[in-house]
Amino acid sequence: MFVPEAMREVNLFVFEQDLEPVAAAITALDILHLEDIQAKDWKPAPEWREFCEKYLDLAQRLEELLSALQVASRNGEPPADLNPRNDLAGLEAQAEVLQQKVRDWQTRRRDIRRKVERLELAVAQLRLLLPLKAPLAELRDLSHQHLVIGSLPSENLPRVSAALFQIAFALIPLSEQNDRTIVLASTSEEQADVLDRALKSAFFEPIELPPEAQGPPEEALPFLEQELRGCQAKREEFEEERRRLAGELGPQLLELRRRAQANLRLAEAIRRFPRRGEIYLIVGWVPASRLKEFHCRARDAARSRLVIEVLEPDTTRQNVPSLLANLAWLRPFRGLVTTFGISAYGELDPTLIATAAFVLMYGMMFGDIGHGAVLAAVGLALRKKSSALGAIAVAAGASGVVFGLLFGTAFGYQLVSPAWLRPMDEIRTLLLTAVLAGVALLNIGFGLNLINAWRSKEWPRFFLEKNGLLGIALYWTLLGGGVAVGLGLMRIGVWASAGLCLCLLMWFREPLAAKIWGGAVVPMGEVIVTGFFELFEAVIGYLSNSFSFIRLGAFAVAHEGISHMLLLYSGGPAGWLVFLAGTVLIVGFEGIIVGIQALRLEYYEFFGRFFQGTGQPFVPLSFKGGHDATVGVRA
Amino acid sequence: MLGTMSHASSQARVRARVSRMIPAGLWSRLLHADTFQDLSVQLRNSPGGEDLASDDPSVLERNLRARQAVAARSLTTSLQGRARELLAWYGRRFDIENLKAVVRAIHFDLDRERIWSMLLPLPEPTLPWRTLVETGSVPGLVDRLSATAYGRPLAPALERYQQESSPFFLEVALDLFYFRRLLRLIGVLRKKDRTQAERFLGRWIAVQNLLWAFRYRDHGGMSPEEIVNYTLHRAPGAGVDMVRRIALGSPLAAEAARFGFVLPDGAEGLDALHRLERLAAREMRRRAEATLAGPIFHLGGVLAYLFLLESEIADLTALIEGKLTGHPPDELRGRLLREVS
């Protein structure tokens, strides 16, 4: 729970004949994090890139068909007998047959849609022309005016206006459908060429009045309206046909898509396997606890001999992926750590302690029974949309309620006698407690850094760095010794001498480390300059990091002050409205600020002491898509 | 918090990538290489030159261009939010380049394997290229692309293509679609990022627009209204007013001067356009170097690196072509964007 799962590097040598069954078996397990290796004479086979593209295309085509028929999507388990190389032709042929059946319907439906659109437009035009008694033939043959009606891509409409900068023209948009605008454009007959060129270069498609519309508009209109009603009725028939096709072809299409997608994932995996002659090499990481299962499944899937090399990870050379096995209830809080970084392999996973620290710090700054309860309720409501955010809000709100009980306030009102103190009455105690809480947290950080350094055998980091033993000694000499001098428990000379000695050690720790453990020797001039500034930064950092936690108390005081002020204003006219708006503001606005402050303390002051977060997430080969594989769940 | 981490990460990646660019000393050796083979060997042994292992000049040139696509794709992941969206879209220029090549090749009925060999080897298949190449007809290709982002701009241009049997209309539709969206994405960036994006991408787009307008007028023989319709109207510093001026006959030297580029007296035609292109590329290179010399937080560092890489690729391409045609170093030197001794 506190460190990423132990990993083993596996090198799997597979004969070409066994490639697909073995790849399918290990992909179904969800436990192999694939490594892309570059080795002489081992190159991925180019044909698998083509398979990927073809399966991608097939999957997209099937998706389009399902979408056209409005077949509800559902995901199933991957088929057991996958074989991307042999399946492709069959799947494409089946898809082609189904596509033909759907395409015929799509073409007829598109034609009737176009006809309806044209008729609707013609009817609308004729209604405008009703006052005219002239026959349509004469309107089609104007001698002084050039007039065209048609459609163009809507985004090209302003471009046409800009292009017609040399002539007088009229461009009237009539309606918009499917990203195209139907326009009426007109100019004088002499400028007809210019207008036509501008329209044509904006991909304009003219719409002609149907030739069957004859006579004056009032005679042609009833005829076209009848045509339109006929076509609209046909559209209903097409909808009925869609339902029939969806019922008939839907299950086959879904099955085809399931196979195509599973094959696509498999081909994408195989595309990354390097090959040499007849042998493919699969290199990756498997959790040590599931190595046996991996071994058995791969061996069972292979028809011929299979070679598996299992190696211990070499963390000095390799970037081993991290699989964090958090408890299920802790999982929503992972974001508090992963936003900063992912634990490197072998590094302690701080999720539990980071969650506890965040919740406690949040509660202290947002201590109020009422506001905490509202925040928790908001969190509960949010859980369906975002389980992580919801869980964090519930925990932070509950912590606010607990601190509210310690402070005795609900919505700023002194509801019960405080179990601990009232922030505004005992500001000094509160601020001192906040700093002490910070000192405690920093020292937990020091301790975790020692464990991390010990585990990774980084002895200079363990002994001599600013967060190692030397740093801890300097921190306590400066802080604890300073307090002891202040209280008269230690002589200032002893304190200063001890501090000076530790400072000198810290200053020259680099050549010291090189002397003890070996390593590059840095020129003394550089040591003097960089060492001094590093020492300066470390000392300032110890003080500023400790006192940075004072904000825990300051925010608690500010929270009570703002809540109290809100109560005062709520006593006036429309008081309930002021109270409601103020509470929303406090829970929403202040709630976010407090969250940012808690995160800030956690990331800069706490994580900076021990956590590097340079790990790479464990992303296993899988038939499923888009799941967070960095986290394993232990129920 | 996320923004800061993203900028730090992109800065680190850019610095690391800049350090792997071709060092000054090697440029001189490349310029003075005796033959193409000699140059090819030196390139292969250059930093990160493993992917340039080809004796075929056209493959080598395509691999060089693909480097830029790989860099854009890789750096996209180090950014967040709108800057990431912008860079991801910028990376689509290589898709567009390949798509235009496919359209043209299918239109001229080239052999499929030949089309395939003309395409840039992009890092991840964003489109089913093999299937597209095998479509066999331009309407079939447009139909196949209908479900992708490129379907919408191509569909209206298809009718014009069918009427006039010219791939130009599909190419121009793709270009306008790409650059208009790029401009929109620049417009919604935050102030600092927007300033940097306008400095690099904005300038690049403006120069492209200027060159298009002149090409359509002088070499395409198009009417003013066609020129206006086939160019961008909102390119920074090169909007519809500039396009109208050019459409009505404004000379190249005058328009170039508005951009701060001085063309020699009497420069005209294709040669003048090439000179202008080189001047613009040199300016972009200087801007990129100046940006990378300072702190490179924000999007500017990433864009500066990409344009610097583009200039490196342009110079290498010029050297490859120069060596193949046997041009002496002194003549080649003038074609490069950088100063090489």
Assigned CATH class of one domain in chain B: Mainly Alpha
Instruction: Give the helix proportion of chain A (percent range).
Output: 55-70%
Q: What is the beta-strand fraction of chain A?
A: 5-15%
| pLDDT < 50 runs, ≥5 residues of chain B | none
CA-atom Rg of chain B in angstroms: 20 Å
Unreliable parts of chain A:
626-635
- Helix count from the secondary structure assignment of chain B: 18
- What is the overall shape of chain A? extended
Quantity of strands of chain B, as a count: 0
What multimeric state do the chains show? heterodimer
Distance between the termini of chain B: 46 Å
Radius of gyration of chain A: 37 Å
**N- and C-termini, Cα separation of chain A:** 12 Å
Detailed description of the structure:
With 635 residues, chain A is α+β, with helices and mostly antiparallel strands. Chain A folds into 3 domains: 46-128 and 218-272, subunit c (vma5p) of the yeast v-atpase, domain 2, CATH 1.20.1460; 141-208, Alpha-Beta Plaits (2-Layer Sandwich); 324-616, no CATH class. Chain A is 59% helix and 12% strand. Chain A has helices at residues 19-29, 47-68, 84-129, 136-139, 157-163, 192-200, 217-270, 291-301, 335-338, 351-365, 369-382, 387-407, 427-455, 459-463, 469-486, 492-507, 509-517, 524-548, 550-569, 575-610, and strands at residues 7-15, 33-34, 43-44, 145-153, 170-177, 180-188, 205-206, 274-276, 279-287, 307-311, 321-322, 324-327, 409-410, 413-414, 616-617, 631-634. In chain A, strands 1, 2, 3, 8, 9 and 10 form a 6-stranded antiparallel sheet that branches. In chain A, a hairpin with a 2-residue loop joins β8 (274-276) and β9. In chain A, α3 runs antiparallel to α7, α11 runs antiparallel to α12 and α19 packs antiparallel against α20 (575-610). Chain A starts with 6 loop residues before the first strand and ends with a strand. The model of chain A is unreliable at 626-635 (pLDDT under 50). With 341 residues, chain B is an all-alpha fold. Chain B has a domain at 92-188: Up-down Bundle (V-type ATP synthase subunit C fold), CATH 1.20.1690. In chain B, 70% of the residues lie in helices and 0% in strands. Chain B contains 18 helices and no strands. At the A-B interface, α2, α5 and α6 of A face α8, α10, α11 and α13 of B.
